[in-house]
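Field log, afternoon session.

UNIT: design team B
ACTIVITY: writing a sequence onto a fixed backbone
BACKBONE:
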């Protein structure tokens, strides 16, 4: 069993010295006032200053930093841009944060094979900016794409408004160079889509920094569609907008993206972004993007418009030119930030439900809002059934955060009850680990822990994330009466 030294007992001097020798003095951040930058990610209600932060530039430097952490038995946590919303990059009190913000090179672009190789700190939107001149783009587009890193996207298996048709990050990662928690450098996957053997690339994507640190990522890029059209339908009920989503898919049309915003979100966005395109009196708007060959887009556009009208849409605006399309999307992409305009604080939830349950679940969320007294704005990737209720509150009132987290928890349990999931794209991190057992049995959780144990036997890579309780490999096997297998405890640092 790993026993972790308490921070006050640890002598940091030799660790700092070795890290400085490997990475350069200025790339080892140790002053408390400088470390404040790293004390939280986008889940700002959870804060913990790390002991140190290091800023490597190369795979070799990441490997050395990890080896030093190994040698001194120090937990380490990868951090990209720190926009995660589940506390994935939240430090533990005596950890080294390995920050990838100096690893921002696009290493190669190969149009013939439709792939690019990037360092993990590269910002998501830079990939499309790099290749758009040649008629390509990178499909996964989180709303945070102008700031979040590809490494963070890989770790969270991030989604975005255009992931309905083309899939989330895992569908676009061909290969990875990874520094394992032992400090070894390995290549997972490769330049071809299907590799023989276990899909370790697939396993790594979404592992939230618990299986190692990605230092190079080979991404698939797609050819920009011949024609793209965005429709904005204006509804007097959220349920009607939700039903329209199911009807469009049932009609055999798979839009690039399909997003719903409710009245609270619409007005917040119009106050801040001033698109002047979103009808302020609509109960909900549905934004739909259709792409493909011109002839196909024209046919789908007519059919989608018809479905919207059949479901009671008051009006459907269409936009084909780039400026107008971007304008229609701009408000949606700024929706989280805009919530800060209508409330001092907001708590974002991220759950998934089967699309057909949208009308029911939205009604239940409304009822929960009435019961709890908190306003809840709804913005979501409707086509994927990925909800993002934003619970508005005031964190300066003592006890409010706890109450709001409970409301958020009720929403997650509702998602699970209707056959959905506790996370669509923001990950489990520190925030949602207590809900893992709502979805997974003991045996399921233990199977995942066995996997983590193989890659991360000392539990030094991003400890305390994803899994709910300190547990021991072999627990479920023993509880099922199987012969006890040899096991070691995952890590002492799991205690919280
Ligand atoms: C306004 C706003 C809108 C958002 N919209 C979306 C959205 O539409 N879709 C969506 O999916 N998410 C969204 N997010 C959440 C967030 O942007 C994503 O989770 C993003 O992928 C995090 O990237 P990051 O670089 O900020 O990672 P960080 O927050 O720094 O880290 C996230 C996790 O990745 C791990 N990690 C980071 N780099 C590496 C690496 N190189 N190797 C291994 N592990 C690593 C960290 O340890 C941590 O567990 C949004 C966030 C905000 C603030």
């Amino acid at each position: 069993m790993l026993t972790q030294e308490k921070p006050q007992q640890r002598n940091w001097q030799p660790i700092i010295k070795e890290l400085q020798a490997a990475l350069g003095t200025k790339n080892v951040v140790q002053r408390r006032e400088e470390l404040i930058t790293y004390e939280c990610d986008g889940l700002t209600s959870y804060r913990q200053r790390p002991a140190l932060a290091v800023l490597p530039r190369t795979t070799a430097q990441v490997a050395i930093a990890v080896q030093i952490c190994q040698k001194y038995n120090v937990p380490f946590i990868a951090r990209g841009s720190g926009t995660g919303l589940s506390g994935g990059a939240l430090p533990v009190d005596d950890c080294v944060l390995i920050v990838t913000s100096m690893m921002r090179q696009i290493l190669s672009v190969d149009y013939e094979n439709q792939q690019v190789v990037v360092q993990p700190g590269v910002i998501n939107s830079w990939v499309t900016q790099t290749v758009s001149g040649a008629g390509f783009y990178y499909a996964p587009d989180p709303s945070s794409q102008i700031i979040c890193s590809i490494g963070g996207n890989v770790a969270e298996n991030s989604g975005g408004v255009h992931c309905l048709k083309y899939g989330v990050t895992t569908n676009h990662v061909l290969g990875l160079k990874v520094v394992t928690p032992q400090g070894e450098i390995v290549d997972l996957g490769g330049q071809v889509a299907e590799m023989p053997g276990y899909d370790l690339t697939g396993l790594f994507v979404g592992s939230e920094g618990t299986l190692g640190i990605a230092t190079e990522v080979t991404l698939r890029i797609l050819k920009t569609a011949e024609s793209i059209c965005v429709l904005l339908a204006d509804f007097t009920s959220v349920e009607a907008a939700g039903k329209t989503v199911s009807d469009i898919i049932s009609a055999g049309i798979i839009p690039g993206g399909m997003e719903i915003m409710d009245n609270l979100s619409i007005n917040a966005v119009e106050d801040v972004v001033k698109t002047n395109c979103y009808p302020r009196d609509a109960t909900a708007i549905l934004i739909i993007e259709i792409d493909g060959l011109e002839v196909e887009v024209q046919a789908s556009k007519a059919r989608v418009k018809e479905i919207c009208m059949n479901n009671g849409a008051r009006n459907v605006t269409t936009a084909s030119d780039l400026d107008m399309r971007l304008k229609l999307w701009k408000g949606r992409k700024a929706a989280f930030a805009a919530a800060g305009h209508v409330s001092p604080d907001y708590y974002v939830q991220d759950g998934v439900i089967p699309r057909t349950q949208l009308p029911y679940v939205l009604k239940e969320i409304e009822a929960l809002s009435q019961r709890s007294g908190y306003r809840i704005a709804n913005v979501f990737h409707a086509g994927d059934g990925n909800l993002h209720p934003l619970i508005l509150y005031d964190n300066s009132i003592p006890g409010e955060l706890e109450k709001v987290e409970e409301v958020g928890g009720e929403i997650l349990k509702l998602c699970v009850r209707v056959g959905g999931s506790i996370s669509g794209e923001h990950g489990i991190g520190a925030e949602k680990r207590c809900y893992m057992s709502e979805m997974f049995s003991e045996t399921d959780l233990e199977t995942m822990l066995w996997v983590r144990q193989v890659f991360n036997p000392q539990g030094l890579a991003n400890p305390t994330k994803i899994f709910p309780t300190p547990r021991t490999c072999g627990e479920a096997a023993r509880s099922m009466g199987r012969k006890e297998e040899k096991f070691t405890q995952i890590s002492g640092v799991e205690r919280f």
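LOG NOTE: The longest strand covers residues 227-235.
NEXT ACTIVITY: expression trials, pending approval
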